[in-house]
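U., I forgot to send this yesterday:
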Amino acid sequence: MTQGPARLGAWQVVRPLGAGGMGAVYLVEHAETRARRALKLVRPGPGRDLSRASREVEALARVDGHPNVVRVHDCGELDEPGQPALWVVMDLAEGGDLGARLARGPLPVAEVVALGRALARGLAHVHARGVLHRDLKPANVLFDERGAPKLVDFGVARVDDAVRLTRSGDVVG
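Result:
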């Protein structure tokens, strides 16, 4: 994983947590409060802009306030010559993802039912606010320290009548 900046806004980068196709995620700590969160730093590849990252911030702001949806705490743009980037500070969910849990074997029925209910409530909240996630998969369900599931990664979400990110026939998510 590439090294990120040492500090973004009031957030001190502690260590990398992971990386994906468009960026990396870091453990950060707020300089004054010492609150720990996850910071997603999005650097689009050649020929791409920050529209998907901006869409994610917009979608998360719109759906804020549900216990099963990751919450945004801060965001900003990193203006480095030739390398535009957007950073978003979100809830820290250190309990792993659903994909890793499923890789260890089947979940007990009671846990599947509780998980399904929690995710359905989160999705209902998201949909009621005019957002369609479009990339729901085990890797995009994280667990907090109490084991509560959180929906994450709204990068390809559709927000109300927003301009489509794809053309007809394109695959998203």
